[in-house]
Amino acid sequence: MTSQNATSAQDNDKGAPLNYFEGFVVREFRNAGKKGKRWVKIGVMFPHESGEGFNAILDANPTDGEITWLRAYSKPKKDEAGYDTGTGEVTSQQAANAEANAAPAPQEQF
User: Fold this and answer.
1) From CA 96, how far away is CA 26, in angstroms rounded?
2) pLDDT for the residue numbered 35
3) Are 25 and 66 a contacting pair, CB within 8 Å?
4) Are residues 19 and 49 in contact, defined by beta-carbon separation less than 8 angstroms?
5) Helix H segments across the chain?
6) Strands 34-47, 68-73: parallel, antiparallel or unpaired by DSSP?
7) What letter does residue 32 receive in the DSSP assignment?
8) Which pLDDT score, from 0 to 100, does residue 85 have?
9) What pLDDT shows up at residue 47?
10) Which region holds residue 13: left if phi is over 0, alpha if psi is between -120 and 50, else beta?
11) Are 18 and 74 in contact (CB under 8 A)?
12) Which terminus of the chain, N or C, has less C-beta within 10 A?
């Protein structure tokens, strides 16, 4: 069973599962006659040190008391330029290219 789970994690675009969950409030809405859902991340939940439960850290409280918990995954989402939309970081190669292409700093005149 373990190999099956590992294979499915590698096949999807999420990456490897992490040891914590992300909490969301899900709100349904209608716009121009179409239904949709809006997912707002409000916190994280991770196993307690003793392994006998979970700790939750909430940045907001849902008005209806309902939180949807989903497992977090390791693979960051990157756009075509290599910009990590989760952390705002760029790959080291792109950072080196940006420095190499940067214009020289203007010299002050006295």
Assistant:
1) 41
2) 92
3) yes
4) no
5) 2-11, 92-101
6) unpaired
7) T
8) 57
9) 94
10) alpha
11) yes
12) C
Please give the average per-residue pLDDT across 34-43, as a whole number.
Answer: 93
CA pair distance 39, 42, nearest whole angstrom: 9
Q: Residues near 57 by Cβ (< 8 Å), separated by ≥ 6?
A: 43, 44, 45
Burial 37-46 (b: 16+ CB within 10 A, else e): eeeeebbbbe
pLDDT tens figures, 47-64: 999 889 999 999 999 999
More confident residue, 18 or 4: 18
The 10 Å Cβ neighbour count of residue 101 is 7
Enter the tokens of residue 61: 């409280």
Q: How many CB atoms lie within 10 A of CB 57?
A: 11
- Which 3 state secondary structure label does DSSP give 45? strand
Report the distance separating Cα 27 and Cα 35, nearest Å: 11
Nearest to 90 by CA among 98, 52, 39: 98
Residue ranges covered by each domain of the chain: 16-101
With bands split at pLDDT 50, 70 and 90, how would you rate the model's confidence at 74? confident
